[in-house]
């Protein structure tokens, strides 16, 4: 990318430049539109390349990318993409932004410039989504802290 500007347009003024960068292209679900943050129909488990700042798909990338992630040791089959799919949908829900509009519940815009321990990076990415990475014996899955129906109600009548 480059920028070509005629210096005569600005005279002796120093030009201030600002950029809005979109970062990496990640693998996202084939039924996901990252611009509208919507999921259409049922997901068949396939992925497509697209830009997103959804922390679930950023986490999938850091786990499976062979150059800067754990991809030499962990493949896509070793990650519970179905758990990430449910987490991603929760992250993409629109919530009030405090100014009369809405914004996605959770986003991740990371700029990593130094080498760190893999688990520390994974824990940081997961903290954005309020979730924990868990190795279930066969693959990496994720448990998210989010509202859900109660699984069991404890009362005096069912406690010994």
UniProtKB/TrEMBL annotation:
<dbReference type="InterPro" id="IPR053171">
    <property type="entry name" value="Viral_Tip_Attach_Protein"/>
</dbReference>
<dbReference type="InterPro" id="IPR032876">
    <property type="entry name" value="J_dom"/>
</dbReference>
<protein>
    <submittedName>
        <fullName>Host specificity protein J</fullName>
    </submittedName>
</protein>
<feature type="domain" description="Tip attachment protein J">
    <location>
        <begin position="113"/>
        <end position="160"/>
    </location>
</feature>
<dbReference type="Pfam" id="PF13550">
    <property type="entry name" value="Phage-tail_3"/>
</dbReference>
């Amino acid at each position: 990318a480059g920028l070509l500007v005629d210096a005569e347009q600005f005279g002796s003024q120093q030009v201030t430049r600002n950029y809005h960068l979109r970062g990496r292209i990640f693998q996202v679900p084939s039924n996901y539109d990252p611009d509208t943050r919507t999921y259409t129909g049922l997901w068949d488990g396939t992925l497509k390349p697209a830009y997103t700042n959804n922390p679930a798909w950023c986490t999938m990338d850091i786990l499976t990318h062979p150059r800067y992630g754990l991809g030499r040791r962990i493949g896509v089959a070793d990650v519970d993409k179905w758990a990430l799919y449910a987490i991603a949908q929760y992250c993409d829900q629109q919530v009030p932004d405090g100014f009369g509009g809405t914004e996605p519940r959770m986003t991740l815009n990371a700029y990593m410039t130094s080498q760190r321990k893999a688990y520390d990076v994974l824990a940081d990415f997961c903290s954005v989504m309020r979730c924990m990475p868990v190795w279930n014996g066969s693959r990496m899955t994720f448990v998210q802290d989010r509202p859900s129906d109660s699984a069991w109600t404890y009362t005096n009548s069912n406690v010994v």
